[in-house]
């Protein structure tokens, strides 16, 4: 890049390019060579790579990249609902809309700007949205890539409507893993969860970690602010930190469900795991003028299969 760390300019590390459908996407880079891509279609992070250029997010080889459908992979934004209810499309409409880059957004504080690049995106209610969800909102999304390669997404939803509204939300994060049967999640043990495979019946997690040997589709409730996903084969751990997102969705479609999804390869369930920071059980209600913030940070650390050294507090 030719920048010394002292004069690192986040604007220089921010490049607008086109994807193969001609849709603008933003490429974020940090001084060490990590990168992230964000599409204006859906405000969706479509790629996150470490300093070695290794992809950290899963995208299906069969993903449909053509709007208006969301792409299967990366980090789709689920708003104003997660799942399938009311008259809205599955997971809401935000992931299927064109967002705009907001140029006049506030800069990073000086102590936070060292080696960091970011982009601010904005989604406002359109006439079309108001027909199916009659509330005016402004949704601001900041995606930032830090000097250490951490990826942070900050969502701010403001009610500019004359009456209160409620919504549910999720960062639908598709993590790329080496082998799902060798992966474990720590930080959700002893929690209650709603099981979407059993009509959302409520259970309590019994294991000392979550491991995978069949389809899983659960919403863990009132979860801690940090969760670890240990990939034994790659000896690496994803640490997911979150604020304003009390729930965690854990999803892997396994073999049978994979075969029923047109935009997902039959065997791809082995290489992916969704662990989503979310607000589902108790939707957010905003009065006119109020704003909600939900923050997610993804970090990758080397790990042995024992995570005692991980700081999950």
Written account of the structure:
- InterPro entries: Aldose_1/G6P_1-epimerase, G6P_1-epimerase, Gal_mutarotase_sf_dom, GH-type_carb-bd.
- GO terms for molecular function: carbohydrate binding; glucose-6-phosphate 1-epimerase activity.
- It catalyses: alpha-D-glucose 6-phosphate = beta-D-glucose 6-phosphate.
- Its EC number is 5.1.3.15.
- It is a single chain.
- This protein starts with 13 loop residues before the first strand and ends in an 11-residue tail after the last strand.
- It is built from two helices and 20 strands.
- The protein has one domain (5-302): Beta-galactosidase, Chain A, domain 5, CATH 2.70.98.
- It has helices spanning 127-132, 254-260, and strands at 14-18, 24-29, 35-39, 44-49, 77-78, 100-101, 117-124, 137-145, 151-159, 165-171, 174-176, 183-186, 192-195, 201-204, 216-220, 226-231, 236-243, 247-252, 272-286, 291-302.
Tag the structure with descriptive keywords.
G6P_1-epimerase; Aldose_1/G6P_1-epimerase; 20 strands; carbohydrate binding; 313 residues; 40% strand; 2 helices; 8-stranded antiparallel beta sheet; globular; Gal_mutarotase_sf_dom; disordered N terminus; Beta-galactosidase, Chain A, domain 5; mainly beta; 4% helix; glucose-6-phosphate 1-epimerase
Kindly summarize this structure in a few lines.
GO terms for molecular function: carbohydrate binding; glucose-6-phosphate 1-epimerase activity. The protein is mainly β and 313 residues long.
């Amino acid at each position: 890049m030719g920048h010394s760390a002292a004069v690192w300019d986040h604007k220089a590390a921010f490049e607008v390019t086109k994807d193969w459908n001609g849709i603008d996407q933003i490429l974020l880079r940090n001084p060490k060579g990590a990168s992230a891509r964000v599409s204006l279609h859906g405000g969706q992070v479509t790629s996150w790579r470490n300093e070695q250029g290794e992809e950290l997010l899963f995208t299906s080889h069969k993903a449909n990249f053509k709007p208006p459908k969301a792409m299967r992979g990366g980090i789709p934004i689920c708003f104003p609902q997660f799942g399938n209810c009311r008259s809205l499309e599955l997971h809401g409409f935000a992931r299927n809309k064109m967002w705009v880059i907001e140029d006049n957004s506030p800069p990073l504080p000086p102590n936070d700007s060292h080696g960091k690049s970011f982009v601010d995106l904005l989604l406002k209610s359109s006439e079309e949205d108001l027909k199916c969800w009659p509330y005016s909102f402004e949704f601001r999304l900041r995606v930032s890539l830090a000097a250490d390669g951490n990826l942070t997404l900050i969502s701010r939803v403001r009610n500019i409507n004359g009456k209160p509204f409620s919504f549910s939300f999720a960062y639908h994060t598709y993590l790329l893993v080496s082998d799902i049967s060798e992966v474990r999640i720590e930080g959700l043990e002893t929690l209650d969860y709603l099981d979407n495979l059993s009509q959302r019946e409520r259970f309590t997690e019994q294991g000392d970690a979550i491991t995978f040997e069949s389809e899983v589709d659960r919403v863990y409730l009132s979860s801690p602010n940090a969760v670890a996903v240990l990939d034994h084969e790659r000896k690496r751990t994803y640490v997911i930190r979150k604020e304003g997102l009390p729930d965690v969705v854990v999803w892997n479609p396994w073999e049978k469900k994979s075969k029923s999804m047109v935009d997902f390869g039959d065997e791809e369930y082995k290489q992916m795991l969704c662990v989503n920071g979310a607000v589902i059980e108790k939707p957010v209600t905003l009065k006119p003028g109020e704003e909600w913030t939900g923050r997610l940070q993804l970090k990758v650390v080397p790990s042995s299969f024992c995570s005692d050294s991980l700081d999950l507090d």
